[in-house]
Every structure is written in structure tokens, then in C-alpha cells.
Amino acid sequence: METTNFKIVSSDSSVDWTGRKVTGAHNGTISIKEGNFILDNGNVKEGNVTINTSSIKILDITDPAANAQFAVHLASDDFFSIEKFPTASFDISSVKEISGNTFYLEGNLTIKDITHVAGFEAVVENNRNAITLSGKLVIDRTKYDIRFRSGNFFKDLGDTLIYNDFELDFNITAEAISEQSKN
Fold it and tell me: How far is the C-alpha of 94 from the C-alpha of 80, rounded, in Å?
């Protein structure tokens, strides 16, 4: 059995986020700080991804003052409490093959030091010395104490309601850093 450790190449990886509200949506990017995947015989067996929460960028608000104000709000305790929690992470605990190179990854998602099991479909392309992993993770923000303008916690929000689910679309590149043979 061949085991290979792949280290995430942050500069070649991207995470796009989308949050929706009654009157529209906001979107942007967030950076991967670090992570890795362990492959056995070419299949993902485990791994982890750490997100740098202070790297969140808003792409849909072009006015610099409004963009900066929104960024400060996302960093606040209403949302991600970035000063207290500078990272979020996903640790893979199980991998199930769906078909070909499509897998269901399940693991522990930690945001604001709160951990819940989460899962999603991912496509994994393996080029021996490098892999790419892409997919979409949908997160219920209220499970992580992000309640600002949630209909679950506040009444009569009207068109100021923010939907609980937000999405992370990711394209991750990782390169092999070591190979070991196991019997």
C-alpha cells in the first residue's frame, strides 16, 4: 500500500464564499492558511484544511468605504469574531467514494471554537505528484453562534433578514511532500 502526504499550496488554492439575504447576496474570497491530505493508493483517506478568517474579502461591494465597513462587521462578534478566532478548520474523518473521482467527505468543521460534523461532495483529480480537490460546502451559520439577523433568533426582520446558510466553493491544489511504502 502506498501512502502519500500532500501539502496544500495556498497560493494555488481558492475559497469563494456567498451569503444570501432577502434582498440579494454578498460574495467574496477567503484564504487557506495551511492543510494537507493523506492518500492511500491514490484515494483520499484523511486530511485537514485551516482557513485564515482575517483574510476575508468582499468582492461585490465596490465602494471602498462601504466595503471597509462591511469587512469590519464580518470581523466583529456579530459574525466571525476574527480577533478571538483567527482560524477556522475542517478535519476529514471519513471518505466515501460516490463514483470515479467524486467522493463524499465528512469531518469536523470548527468555526469560532465550535465544532459540528459537516459533509459535502468533492471531486478529486490525482496527478501523482499533485492533486486538486473542488466542491461546495454549505454551512448553517447559526450552529456556530453567528446569529445576526437570523430568522431563527429575531422576529419581524422583513427585508433585513439574512439566510442562515452560506456557501464555500473551493478549488484546492496540494503537492506531494513525501512517499512511504507500507506493507
Answer: 27
Distances (CA, A) of 25 to 18, 83, 128, 161: 7, 25, 39, 11
What are the boundaries of each domain within the chain?
2-181
Q: Give every CB contact of residue 12 below 8 A, 6+ residues apart in sequence.
A: 173
| pTM assigned to the model | 0.87
Residues 161, 151: contact at Cβ < 8 Å? Answer: yes
Confidence of residue 151 (pLDDT cuts 50, 70, 90): very low
Inform me whether the pLDDT recorded for 152 exceeds 80. no
At residue 174, the 3 state secondary structure works out as strand
Summarize the confidence of residues 85-96 as an average pLDDT: 96
Specify the DSSP element, H or E, that contains 71. Answer: helix 64-75
Q: For residue 74, how many other CB atoms are within 10 A of its CB?
A: 21
CATH 2.40.128.110 for domain 2-181: yes
- Tell me if residue 152 falls in helix, strand or coil: coil
Q: What is the DSSP string of 116-130?
A: EEEEEEEEEEE-SSE
